[in-house]
Write a structure and sequence with these properties.
Layout (H helix, E strand, L loop, with lengths): L32 H8 L3 H10 L5 E2 L5 E2 L2 H15 L5 H44 L24
Antiparallel strand pairs: 1-2
Length: 157
Amino acid sequence: MAGRPQGGDGRGRAPSDATGPDAVAHDSPVFVISVAAQLSGLHAQTLRSYDRLGLVSPGRASGGGRRYSQRDIALLREVQRLSQEEGVNLAGVKRIIELEQLVDELHARLEETTAELDAVRAAAAQATAAVHRFYRRDLVPVGRRAVVRWRPGRPEQ
């Protein structure tokens, strides 16, 4: 699914795409079920069914009413596309959504781990450079197989 939309319950959210003081965040649950049904092209009862099945989990208002975000609307459209155009049953759609959310989470973890690894590599490079600054320049490395024989009191021949 393009953009991998997710439910409005706060699971696995990316930072908001909104900018400016009046912009509504992509994840902000603002649409009541009737508006969400219109925007997604589905019947309100279908949205309730999808919520019960765990396909799209909208946010909840203080009174318990469902509130859908723009991301939820995109997910509703994708669920409809998968089921109608691709012929995937709702259990399959749910599994696809779960796997795509897992992929998103793994990508985020990979980015975090890569950033940590880069920081560790930079610290190791700094430590190596610090050690190299203290090397004695008058010492010469000797190969492991070289044998040096020293006899005190004997002149070199």
